């Protein structure tokens, strides 16, 4: 039997979505599947795909709506789909799904799959924009064979906001390479490299510095813990980087908060931390909390999206309300200095992620879904 040709379509992506896609392609059965990724060139994702030897095609796709570029992307995709004989188009993110599904319809691609990685109904949007987006998604869903959500909470949101039937949506949890985060690291050396003071526990977050990640609330919580011998670490970059650094100064956190910027050594970073914090305002199922758990670190996170599906309250970490720095500070104060409790939470989290959130589980369930959809259409 010839290989099944699959085209992944994605907007410029970094962080969790990038890692999810790369792992999906990296661990797919190469004897059964021939995978290609369509994404914008000269981006972090493109460069990493090329470096890994993954087949790519360039498309002029940007994150925001751009009629000219989006039309050009659809035309490029239709041409490729016709010429390549692609059987499955798998779109990622709402923008990738908009362009990818239109192209697949025009090209007559047999199977269309869409993975929703996070909420598209941003709280700051006006009601009319949410309604418009829901109508567009509802229309495109008619031509989508299966929608994958990375958490049950996200599945429920799509059912409620877009009126989609439960049978059209399936949850496949994000998965990570757990072994990468279960390694020994020279903690003192890495701390010195990042200019982190030797004394005091280290509480940190790894996130894109964008509004939905809620890093401002993490800084406000840190400012309420000045009487504790603890340091804070922020890893990541994004549009709010300068604003957050200024806020840290205004909160009197000079010398207590280290901004490490964008880094590739996340496994080492996780090994440094005593507590990992996820202060997000909205989420699908963030890879960073899974990575922290795989590293044996307790997690304090906001109760949003699929986070409560990964964090078992009181067993693998603590959950707090979003946009509530006081509650976040109280939760952290409960754990700082409680080394036995931190160790117990970390050990429990490590076992939990190894059982439920491995990259092998994610890839196997996705490949099984492809086969089921192809079998339903008598294509295999």
Quick take:
Residues 188-351 form the Glycosyl transferase family domain. The chain has 380 residues and is α/β, with parallel strands linked by helices.
Give your account of this protein's structure.
The chain is α/β, with parallel strands linked by helices. It has 2 domains: 4-175 and 358-376, Glycogen Phosphorylase B (Rossmann fold, 3-Layer(aba) Sandwich), CATH 3.40.50; 178-356, Rossmann fold, CATH 3.40.50.2000. The protein is built from 15 helices and 13 strands. The protein has helices spanning 15-26, 44-51, 67-84, 93-107, 127-141, 152-162, 187-193, 215-223, 241-250, 266-272, 287-294, 307-310, 325-335, 339-356, 359-376; strands spanning 4-10, 33-39, 56-58, 88-92, 111-116, 146-149, 169-171, 201-206, 230-235, 257-261, 275-278, 299-302, 317-320. The strands form 2 sheets. It has a 7-stranded parallel beta sheet with strand order 3-2-1-4-5-6-7, sandwiched between helices. α3 (67-84) crosses α4 (93-107) and α11 packs across α14 (339-356). The radius of gyration is 21 Å and the shape is globular. The mean pLDDT is 93.
């Amino acid at each position: 039997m010839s290989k099944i040709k699959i085209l992944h379509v994605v907007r410029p992506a970094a962080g969790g979505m990038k890692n999810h896609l790369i792992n999906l392609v990296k661990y797919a059965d190469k004897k059964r599947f021939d995978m290609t990724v369509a994404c914008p060139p000269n981006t972090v994702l493109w460069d990493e795909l090329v470096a890994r030897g993954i087949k790519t095609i360039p498309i002029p796709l940007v994150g925001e709506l751009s009629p000219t570029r989006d039309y050009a992307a659809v035309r490029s995709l239709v041409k490729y789909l016709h010429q390549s004989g692609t059987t499955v188009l798998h779109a990622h993110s709402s923008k990738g799904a908009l362009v990818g599904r239109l192209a697949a319809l025009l090209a007559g691609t047999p199977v269309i799959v869409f993975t929703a990685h996070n909420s598209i109904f941003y709280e700051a949007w006006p009601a009319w924009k949410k309604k418009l987006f829901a109508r567009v998604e509802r229309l495109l869903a008619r031509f989508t064979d299966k929608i994958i959500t990375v958490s049950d909470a996200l599945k429920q949101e799509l059912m409620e906001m877009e009126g989609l039937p439960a049978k059209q949506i399936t949850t496949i949890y994000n998965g990570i390479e757990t072994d990468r985060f279960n390694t020994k690291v020279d903690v003192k050396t890495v701390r010195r490299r990042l200019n982190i003071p030797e004394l005091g526990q280290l509480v940190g977050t790894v996130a894109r510095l964008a509004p939905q990640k809620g890093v401002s609330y993490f800084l406000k919580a840190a400012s309420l813990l000045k009487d504790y011998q603890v340091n804070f670490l922020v890893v990541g970059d994004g549009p709010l980087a300068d604003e957050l650094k200024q806020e840290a100064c205004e909160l009197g956190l000079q010398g207590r908060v280290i901004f490490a910027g964008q880094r590739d050594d996340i496994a080492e970073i996780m090994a440094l931390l005593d507590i990992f914090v996820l202060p997000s305002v909205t989420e699908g199922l963030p890879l960073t909390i899974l990575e922290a758990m795989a590293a044996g670190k307790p997690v304090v996170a906001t109760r949003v999206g699929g986070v409560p599906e990964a964090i078992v309250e009181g067993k693998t970490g603590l959950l707090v309300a979003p946009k509530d720095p006081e509650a976040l500070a109280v939760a952290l104060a409960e754990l700082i200095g409680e080394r036995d409790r931190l160790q117990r939470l970390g050990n429990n989290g490590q076992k939990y992620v190894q059982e439920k959130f491995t990259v092998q589980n994610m890839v196997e369930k996705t490949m099984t879904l492809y086969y089921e959809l192809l079998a339903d259409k008598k294509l295999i």
